[in-house]
Amino acid sequence: MSVDPVGQVRSSTARYVLRQLIGMIGARSLRYRILTLLRQGRPQAARISSAASGEGSAMSYGASAYARVAQTALTPREAEAAVLIKAAGRLQTIQADWQNQSGALNEALNFNQKVWSIIAGAATAPDSQLPIEIKTSIAELSTFVFKRMIDTMIEPKAEKLSALININHQIAAGLRT
User: Fold this and answer.
1) Per-residue three-class SS string for 125-157
2) Rounded distance between C-alpha atoms, residue 116 and residue 119, angstroms
3) Residue-wise DSSP of 40-75
4) Over 70: is that where the pLDDT of 112 sits?
5) Distance (Å, rounded) from C-alpha 12 to C-alpha 18?
6) pLDDT of residue 6 exceeding 60
7) Pick from 35, 9, 13, 7: which is nearest to 133 by CA?
């Protein structure tokens, strides 16, 4: 599989591999981890105001209800696509307003790393039902993503985020087809 510097997946084989990955890693535990990532980043004000007013149990009930609805409303593919879009959105926000948002870079990269760790771990696990070629391609793509994130942390530049954003969008688009 080849990935160019801006994160465009180039070969038709790579696109095929990405399509094959989608849905095949939708195991229950993976789905739970992805839904957990989707719930991350809820507005802090909502959590603080409910704690201050003594609504802790009601808030827990609300969070549980949200989780149940999300599990029934989203297919594994939709959940995977949504979490990739969420990660890309965080990176795009920082890239678009680099001067004011660059302080949030490490947090956004950390979130992207969590997403890719889940995807790579599930796809390359020994009990994964994916063919070896797909496991290898996912591992290679994940390695590229992790290297780009580390490079961006070491030497932050807004343009380095383009590859990560493009890859996340491409994988999400593949999950939606």
Assistant:
1) CCCCCCCHHHHHHHHHHHHHHHHHHHHHHHCCC
2) 5
3) TT--HHHHHHHHHTT-HHHHHHHHHHHHHHHHHHS-
4) yes
5) 10
6) no
7) 13
